[in-house]
Hints:
Layout: E1 6-15, E2 21-29, E3 35-42, E4 48-53, E5 64-71, E6 77-86, E7 91-97, E8 103-109, E9 117-122, E10 128-135, E11 140-144, E12 150-155, E13 164-172, E14 178-185, E15 193-200, E16 206-208
Antiparallel strand pairs: 1-2, 2-3, 3-4, 5-6, 6-7, 7-8, 9-10, 10-11, 11-12, 13-14, 14-15, 15-16
Amino acid sequence: IGNNDNLEYGVSISQAADSSFLLAGYYDENATGFIYPFVTHLKKNGTLDWVKQISIAPSFYKTYTRAEAVKTADSKPNGYIVLVDATSDDNTYLVRLNNDGSVAWSKKFNTSSSNGKVRPIYNNTGTLLGFYILAEYGRTIIRTGTTGNITWQKTVTHNVQGNLYQFEDIQVTTDGGCIAVGNMYTDGGSHYSLPVAFRFTSTGTILFG
Length: 209
């Protein structure tokens, strides 16, 4: 990263509890044609602190990278959670980073997360419970524990053939569940769309949608 033969792209940014920032993106290595995800840590005044490449299977196509800051129960920085969609092998990688950018653990899921999202889940005392992932081109919600193991996974389908849902964003609700917002498309996405919202309990039951 920073080499002259690389094209670099910023994709998302998140602010940590100490007011610093984590920028996530990907870079195109012209010499090989491979695309790799990376994260860049900025101090709260915007100066560069460190840059890390995330070591997963490289891609020949755009690699979607999203990152969110994680905090402790007493609101101190507690590393980061990074969601990477490697379009070359159609898998999703969830990577937990420490405060210095070193990898604490990583998990691979056999699903795409093109334009996906990841959100930390906390209880009412601020303790980290796990993460929500928006995956499978915005049609699947995954809940994991604190080390990335899947607690439940739900794909939302329409009861009319040819109609489909595609979520664009997901947020954690105060009861530990989540709400996802997006659109319902007809005829396989080629025609009319209608905004929709689905709310899920912490165990994956749909409350409305």
